[in-house]
C-alpha cells in the first residue's frame, strides 16, 4: 500500500505510526502504574501481586487456544474436542488396572480372610467408626481453601461456608449416610481435568501438560473428615515410619535433608585411618541414590491398597469407605470450554484428592521396613521421593550396599505393581577423596546408573563435597528473574506501598532462597553464600530504591531483609530444636544428640552452628518441649459444651478509650451465669520473649477464691505464658475439693492469640500445652459443667484482670528451670539474638549514628518519591546529591571528571556553598533548612538519632529540593542517576 506513496508522504506515515506506537506504549505504562498504585496497594491484594509476578516470570503459562497437539498414533489434534479426547485417553491409559494373576490371587485370598475378621469396632460404630459430629464438619469447613474452581457439581467452598444450620444438618446427614454403609455418590467420583502446560515443555506433546483435576468440594469435605481420623490413627499407632516426612503434621522436607547432610559430615569427621580402615571408627564414604517412581500415584492397585490398610489393622468400616471412594472413578478433560468423552480411571489415587498423600505414606510404609534391613543404609522419604544413603569406610563396600538397596527397591516395586524409572534415577558419591567418584555405577531396574557431579533431591542440588555451589547458582538463576519482575512494580514516583513490597520481597525472593536452608546453608562455603547475598541485596534495592553503591548494612536494614549470614544461626537453631523435640527413636533425634569431634575445618553443619547460636542466646541448657506423638481423637464429641467468644462488641476495639472498653466488657459479662466458677488468667513475659509467668484468680460458686502462679519458661512468648496460666487454673479446678458439678465455668483472658489457637479444636492442637488444656476442658465438661472461654480487653480497669496481671508478673520471678520451651519460641529467641549481634557489628557510618542498633520502621505513610529520598539519605548515598553524582561521573567539571573527594568544587552544595551536599550536610547542617528544622523539631541543631523519624527526613528532603530546584538549571546533566 505504501509503495505508491511519495517519499514525503511515506515519511509522514512512518512518523505517525511511531507516534501512535509511542502513545499506545505511554497509555499502557500509565494504566499499569495506576493499577499497581491503586488496585494492588491493598492488604488483601498480596495474592494478586504474587500471581502477577509469577505470570510475568513465566511460571503461569498463558493459554494457547490454537495450539495443535499430538494425539493417537502421532496424529495432530487441532480442534478443541479432539485435543480433549486425546488428553483423556492418555490419562486413562496411565491409570488402568494391570492384571497379574500370580500376584492378584494371593491378594484376593488374604483380603477375604481379613474381611471375615470384621471391624475393630465390633459393629458398635464407636470411636473411629462413629458418625461424624457437627463440630468435626465445621472444623473441616473452616480449613477448606477458598477461591478454588468447583468440580462437575458446581458447588464451591464459599457455598459450604454460607450454609445455615438446617442445610448443615442435611449435609452432615448425607456424609454420615455414606460413612455408615460405604456408598459413595457418583458425583463425588467424577472429575473435570484441565491440562496446564509445564514451564519450558513442548506444547505439542500431550505429556508436556500437567493434569489438574477439579473434583466435588462436598467430596473434599468428606475426605477431610475421614482423613483427619485416618491421620490420627496413623500417628497414634506409629504406622508411618519416621523416615517418611511427607504430608505429616509438623514435619518437613528440611528435616530429611538436614539429617542427610549432618550424617555425611559426621562420617567425614571420623578419624582418618592410620592403616586399614575400620567400619564405624574411621572416616566414611557415602553413595547417595535418588529413585524416581514412574507415575507413583497413578499406578496404585486399589485391592492391594485395601490389603495394606487392613494389614495395618485400620478399622474395616474406614477401609471399606476409602475403597469405594477410589472405585469406578471417571473423568473428562476440558480444553477451552470443550469437554471430552468420559473415561474410567481404574487404578491410582485421584489427582487433587485430600486423602491421596496420607494413603500413599501408608502404602509405602513397608518399603522403609525393607530398606532398613540393608546394612549401612539410611532411608529418606518425602511422599514418593525416595533416596538411600549407603556408607562404609571403603567406597567399594558403599557401592555394594547401594546396589543391594536398589535391588530391594526394585523387588518391592515389582511385588506391588509399581515401576521404577531407572533412566531418571540419580547417583552421587559423597567423599573427601576425588578418586572415589570415578567409575561409580549401579544397576536399577536393568538400567545402568552412573555417578554424576551433582544430584538434585527434594529441590536441593548436592555436590560431592557438600559445598552447595551448584545449588546456590541454581537459586540465583531462579531468583534473578523474580527480582527483575519485582523492580517492574516499582518506580521513583509510583510503587506498591512499602509494607506490600517488604512482604512480597520476603516471600517471593527471600522465601525461595531460604527453601530448606537450615539443612544446607550452614554447610555452604562463604563464596557460595555470597551469591545468595547478592540477590538479597538486589531485592532490598527494589524495595528501598537505594543506589547500587549503598553499603550492605544500611541497605538491608532499610529494606527489613536480614542477610543470609544473619538468618543462618536461627535456621540452624530451629533444626536443633526440631531434632530435640522428636521422640528418641526418630533418626533425626539421634543425629541431633550425637557429638562428633570436628576433624575437617571446612565442614560445618547445622548442629554445630545451632548449638553455638543457642549458647549466644543463653539457651544452651533450656529444655525443649517434646513434639506430641498422640493427639485428641477428632471423634471425641465431649467438646460440644465448650464454647468460645472472642468479642465484646464494638466498644472492645483496641483504639477505643479504656472506659469504653471496660463498659463493653462488663456489659458482656453481665449476661453470663452469676453462679459459676470464674477464672481470670493472664500471662507475662519480659519484652514478650523471656522470663515468662502465668497467673490466675479462681472464684468458686461458694465464694471461695484461689490464686495461682506458675513459671512459663526462661524463653517464653506472651501467648505461651497465657496458656500456662490457663493450664494451671484448670489443674487447680480439677484438683479442688469444691463441688462444682453442673455449675458453668467461665474463663476470661485478654489473649486473643491463645483463644484462637484453642478454638481451632481439640484434635487440631499441635503442642503438649494445647492438648493438655483441651484434655482438662473435656474432662470438666464431661462432669456436666458447660465451659465458656471469653476474651476481655486488656488494661482497661477490670479489677480481676488487673489482679491476674499482677500474679503473672510475680510468677515471672519464680525459678524457670523446670519449664520447657517450644521450638518456635526458641527459634525466635535465636533470631532476635542474631539480629542484635548483626546490628551491633554495623560499621561506623551516618546510618549507625541515626539508628544506633535499631531497625528502621517501614515508611507506610509516605509516597514513593519521598520514601526513596528517606532511604537514600539515611543510608548515606543520595541520588540527588551533587557530591554523589560527581562521584559516579554524572557531574563532571572541566578540572575534575570524577572523584570521591568531598572537598572537590563539583561536590559543593549549590544552595549554601559551604561544603559537600552529603546527607549529613543536608539534614544536619545546611543553613537553608535551619527554619525547617526549628519548625519541625524546635531546634535548628538536631541530633542524628532524631532522623529515625521518616516523616522528618522526608520533610527536610522536600525543603532542600525546593531550595535547590531554581539553582539546578545552572548545573548540566540529569538530576539523578
Describe it for me?
InterPro entries: DNA/RNA_pol_sf, RdDP_mobile_element, RNaseH-like_sf, RNaseH_domain, RNaseH_sf, RT_dom. Keywords: Nucleotidyltransferase, RNA-directed DNA polymerase, Transferase. This is Putative RNA-directed DNA polymerase from transposon BS. Residues 177-462 form the Reverse transcriptase domain. One of its GO terms (molecular function) is RNA-DNA hybrid ribonuclease activity. The structure is a single chain. The chain has 977 residues and is α+β, with helices and mostly antiparallel strands. Among the domains are: 253-295 and 359-463, 2-Layer Sandwich (Alpha-Beta Plaits); 469-614, no CATH class; 637-819, Nucleotidyltransferase, domain 5, CATH 3.30.420.10; 878-968, no CATH class. It contains 34 helices and 21 strands. Strands 16-21-20-17-18-19 form a six-stranded mixed β-sheet. α4 packs across α10, α18 (526-544) packs across α19 (552-559) and α30 packs across α34 (950-968). The longest helix is centred in the N-terminal third of the chain and has 32 residues, at 7-38. The chain is globular and about 100 Å long. Residues 970-977 have low confidence and may be disordered.
Low-confidence segments, given as residue ranges, are 970-977
What value does the Rg take, in angstroms? 33 Å
CATH class of the domain at 637-819: Alpha Beta
Shape: globular
Tally of DSSP β-strands: 21
CATH homology superfamily of the domain at 637-819: Ribonuclease H-like superfamily/Ribonuclease H
User: How are strands sequenced across the largest beta sheet?
Assistant: 16-21-20-17-18-19
* CATH third-level topology of the domain at 637-819: Nucleotidyltransferase, domain 5
What portion of residues is helical? 40-55%
Multimeric organization: single chain
Discrete helix count: 34
Keywords: Nucleotidyltransferase, RNA-directed DNA polymerase, Transferase
Protein name: Putative RNA-directed DNA polymerase from transposon BS
Domain RNase H type-1: 673-813
Organism: Amphibalanus amphitrite
Amino acid at each position: 500500500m505504501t509503495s505508491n506513496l511519495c517519499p514525503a508522504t511515506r515519511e509522514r506515515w512512518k512518523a505517525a505510526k511511531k507516534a501512535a506506537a509511542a502513545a499506545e506504549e505511554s497509555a499502557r505504562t500509565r494504566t499499569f502504574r495506576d493499577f499497581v498504585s491503586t488496585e494492588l496497594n491493598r492488604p488483601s491484594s498480596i495474592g494478586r501481586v504474587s500471581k502477577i509476578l509469577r505470570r510475568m516470570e513465566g511460571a503461569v503459562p498463558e493459554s494457547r487456544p490454537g495450539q495443535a497437539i499430538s494425539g493417537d498414533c502421532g496424529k495432530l489434534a487441532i480442534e478443541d474436542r479432539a485435543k480433549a479426547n486425546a488428553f483423556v485417553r492418555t490419562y486413562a491409559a496411565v491409570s488402568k488396572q494391570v492384571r497379574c494373576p500370580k500376584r492378584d490371587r494371593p491378594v484376593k485370598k488374604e483380603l477375604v480372610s481379613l474381611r471375615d475378621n470384621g471391624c475393630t469396632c465390633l459393629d458398635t460404630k464407636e470411636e473411629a467408626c462413629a458418625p461424624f459430629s457437627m463440630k468435626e464438619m465445621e472444623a473441616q469447613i473452616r480449613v477448606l481453601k477458598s477461591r478454588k474452581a468447583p468440580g462437575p457439581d458446581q458447588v464451591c467452598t464459599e457455598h459450604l461456608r454460607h450454609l445455615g444450620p438446617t442445610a448443615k444438618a442435611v449435609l452432615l446427614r448425607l456424609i454420615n449416610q455414606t460413612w455408615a454403609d460405604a456408598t459413595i455418590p457418583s458425583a463425588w467420583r467424577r472429575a473435570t481435568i484441565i491440562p496446564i502446560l509445564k514451564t519450558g515443555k513442548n506444547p505439542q506433546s500431550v505429556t508436556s501438560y500437567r493434569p489438574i483435576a477439579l473434583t466435588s468440594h462436598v467430596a473434599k469435605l468428606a475426605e477431610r473428615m475421614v482423613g483427619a481420623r485416618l491421620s490420627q490413627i496413623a500417628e497414634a499407632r506409629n504406622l508411618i515410619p519416621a523416615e517418611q516426612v511427607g504430608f505429616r503434621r509438623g514435619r518437613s522436607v528440611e528435616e530429611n535433608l538436614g539429617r542427610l547432610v549432618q550424617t555425611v559430615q559426621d562420617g567425614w569427621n571420623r578419624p582418618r585411618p592410620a592403616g586399614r580402615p575400620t567400619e564405624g571408627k574411621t572416616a566414611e564414604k557415602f553413595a547417595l541414590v535418588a529413585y524416581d517412581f514412574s507415575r507413583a500415584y497413578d499406578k496404585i492397585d486399589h485391592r492391594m491398597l485395601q490389603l495394606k490398610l487392613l494389614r495395618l489393622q485400620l478399622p474395616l468400616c474406614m477401609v471399606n469407605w476409602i475403597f469405594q471412594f477410589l472405585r469406578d472413578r471417571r473423568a473428562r478433560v476440558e480444553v477451552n470450554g470443550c469437554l471430552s468423552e468420559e473415561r474410567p480411571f481404574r487404578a491410582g489415587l485421584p489427582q487433587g484428592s485430600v486423602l491421596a498423600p496420607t494413603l500413599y505414606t501408608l502404602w509405602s510404609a513397608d518399603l522403609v521396613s525393607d530398606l532398613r534391613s540393608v546394612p549401612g543404609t539410611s532411608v529418606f522419604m518425602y511422599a514418593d521421593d525416595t533416596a538411600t544413603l549407603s556408607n562404609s569406610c571403603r567406597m567399594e563396600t558403599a557401592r555394594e550396599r547401594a546396589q543391594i538397596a536398589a535391588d530391594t527397591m526394585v523387588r518391592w516395586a515389582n511385588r506391588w505393581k509399581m515401576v521404577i524409572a531407572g533412566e531418571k534415577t540419580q547417583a552421587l558419591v559423597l567423599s573427601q577423596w576425588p578418586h572415589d567418584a570415578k567409575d561409580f555405577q549401579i544397576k536399577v531396574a536393568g538400567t545402568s546408573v552412573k555417578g554424576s557431579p551433582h544430584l538434585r533431591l527434594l529441590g536441593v542440588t548436592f555436590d560431592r563435597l557438600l559445598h552447595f555451589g551448584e545449588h546456590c547458582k541454581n537459586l540465583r538463576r531462579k531468583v534473578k528473574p523474580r527480582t527483575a519482575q519485582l523492580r517492574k512494580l516499582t518506580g521513583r514516583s509510583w510503587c506498591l506501598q512499602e509494607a506490600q513490597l517488604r512482604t512480597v520481597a520476603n516471600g517471593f525472593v527471600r522465601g525461595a532462597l531460604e527453601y530448606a536452608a537450615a539443612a544446607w546453608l550452614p554447610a555452604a562455603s562463604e563464596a557460595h553464600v555470597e551469591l545468595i547475598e547478592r540477590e538479597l541485596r538486589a531485592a532490598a534495592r527494589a524495595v528501598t530504591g537505594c543506589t547500587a553503591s549503598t553499603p550492605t548494612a544500611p541497605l538491608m536494614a532499610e529494606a527489613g531483609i536480614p542477610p543470609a549470614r544473619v538468618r543462618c544461626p536461627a535456621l540452624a537453631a530451629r533444626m536443633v530444636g526440631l531434632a530435640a523435640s522428636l521422640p528418641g527413636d526418630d533418626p533425626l533425634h539421634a543425629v541431633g544428640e550425637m557429638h562428633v569431634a570436628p576433624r575437617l575445618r571446612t565442614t560445618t553443619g547445622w548442629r554445630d552452628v545451632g548449638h553455638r547460636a543457642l549458647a549466644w542466646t543463653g539457651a544452651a541448657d533450656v529444655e525443649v518441649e517434646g513434639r506430641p506423638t498422640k493427639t485428641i481423637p477428632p471423634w471425641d464429641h465431649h467438646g460440644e459444651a465448650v464454647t468460645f467468644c472472642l468479642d465484646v462488641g464494638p466498644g472492645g476495639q483496641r483504639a477505643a478509650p479504656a472506659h469504653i472498653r471496660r463498659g463493653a466488657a462488663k456489659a458482656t459479662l453481665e449476661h453470663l451465669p452469676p453462679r459459676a466458677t470464674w477464672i481470670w488468667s493472664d500471662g507475662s513475659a519480659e519484652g514478650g520473649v523471656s522470663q515468662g509467668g502465668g497467673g490466675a484468680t479462681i472464684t468458686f460458686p461458694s465464694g471461695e477464691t484461689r490464686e495461682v502462679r506458675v513459671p512459663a519458661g526462661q524463653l517464653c512468648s506472651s501467648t505461651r505464658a497465657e496458656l500456662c496460666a490457663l493450664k494451671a487454673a484448670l489443674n487447680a479446678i480439677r484438683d479442688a475439693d469444691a463441688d462444682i458439678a453442673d455449675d458453668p465455668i467461665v474463663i476470661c483472658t485478654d489473649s486473643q492469640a491463645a483463644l484462637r489457637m484453642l478454638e481451632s479444636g481439640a484434635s487440631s492442637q499441635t503442642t503438649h500445652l494445647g492438648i493438655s488444656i483441651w484434655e482438662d476442658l473435656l474432662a470438666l465438661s464431661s462432669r456436666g459443667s458447660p465451659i465458656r472461654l471469653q476474651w476481655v480487653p486488656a488494661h482497661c480497669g477490670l479489677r480481676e484482670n488487673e489482679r491476674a496481671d499482677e500474679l503473672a508478673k510475680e510468677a515471672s520471678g519464680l525459678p524457670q528451670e523446670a519449664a520447657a520451651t517450644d521450638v518456635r519460641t526458641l527459634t525466635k529467641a535465636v533470631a532476635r539474638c542474631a539480629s542484635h549481634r548483626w546490628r551491633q557489628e554495623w560499621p561506623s557510618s551516618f546510618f549507625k549514628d541515626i539508628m544506633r542498633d535499631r531497625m528502621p520502621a517501614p515508611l507506610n505513610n509516605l509516597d514513593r518519591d519521598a520514601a526513596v529520598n528517606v532511604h537514600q539519605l539515611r543510608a548515606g548515598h543520595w541520588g540527588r546529591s551533587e557530591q554523589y553524582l560527581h562521584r559516579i561521573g554524572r557531574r563532571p567539571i572541566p578540572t575534575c571528571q570524577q572523584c570521591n573527594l568531598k572537598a572537590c568544587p563539583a561536590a559543593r552544595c549549590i544552595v549554601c556553598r559551604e561544603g559537600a551536599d552529603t546527607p549529613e550536610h543536608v539534614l544536619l547542617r545546611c543553613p537553608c533548612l535551619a527554619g525547617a528544622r526549628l519548625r519541625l523539631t524546635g531546634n535548628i541543631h538536631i541530633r542524628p538519632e532524631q532522623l529515625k523519624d521518616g516523616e522528618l527526613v522526608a520533610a527536610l528532603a522536600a525543603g532542600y529540593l525546593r531550595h535547590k530546584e531554581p539553582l539546578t538549571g545552572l548545573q548540566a546533566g540529569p538530576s539523578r542517576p
